[in-house]
Specification:
Homodimer. By secondary structure, the protein is mainly alpha-helical. Helix 2 packs parallel to helix 5. The chain contains eleven helices and no strands.
Amino acid sequence: MEDILARHLRIARPWYPHDYVPWSDGRNFALLGGEDWDPAQSELTELTSTALTVSVLIADNLSAYHRDLAKYLRHGPWWRWVGRWTAEENRHEILLRNYLVVSRAVDPIELERMRMTQVVAGLRRPSVHVLDVLARAAFDEAAATVRHRNTAALAENSVVTAIADRLAADDAAHTEVFADLVAAGLNRAPDQAVRAIADQVAVFETPEVTLADGCSGTALLAASGVYEPVRAPEVVFGPLVDRWKIFSRTDFGSAGEQAAAELAVLLGR
C-alpha cells in the first residue's frame, strides 16, 4: 500500500474546482434581490443535465462511501489512502454543484431536495472481506470513468466537456490504485482474491439515483448510452480482469479455478 499510495501522490496532477466554473455567468437569486430559477434559463440538453445531476448526487453521498471504505482500511497507509481518496472525490461534488447552480442548468431547489434524500438514505452494503471491498471499489471507479468519458463525448459545450474529462481522469487514477491493490491481493492469496472478484462482478450495481420526477437516473443514462449496465462486462469488468490476467494465471487452486470459471461465464468468455 505504501508504494502504491506514493506513486499516486507522485503522479496526481493538482487541480482546483473553481477554475472550471464560469463565475461571470452567475447572478443572485430572489432572496438577495435577483431572480429565481426558471426552466428557460437552462442552456443544457436534458441528457447532459441528467448526466451531471446523477454525477453530483452520487458524489453527494461521499460520506457513506468514506464510511464503507474506512471501516476496512483503518491503519497506516491504508487510512491515509482513504483520506486522500475522500479529499479528491470531494472536489467532484464541489465542482459539479457550483457549475450547475452558477450556470442555472438545473433547478437548485430540486437539486437540494434530491441531495437531502440521497444523503439521508445513505449507503447500505453487506459486510465482506477486504478483498471484496477493493474489487468493488475498482469496479465502481471504472464505471464512473466510463460515465464521465461518455458525458464528455456528448460535447455539450467546452466547459461541460472539460469538467467531465477532469472527473474521468480522477476516476481513472483511482481505478489504478484499487486495481493495483487487487493485483497485490491476487499475488498473496490468489484463490481468495479471484473469489472476491467473481462475487463482486456477480452483484455489481452502480449507485441508484432517483430524480425529482421520480424517474431512475440509472435507467435514463442507460437508455441514452451514457452508462449502460448491460455493457459492464465489456467496458468495466473485462479490462480489469484482463489486467489481472485471471484466465492465464497458473497459481489458482481448485477453489480459485472454480471462481475463475464462474467469472468467465459472467463475462461471456
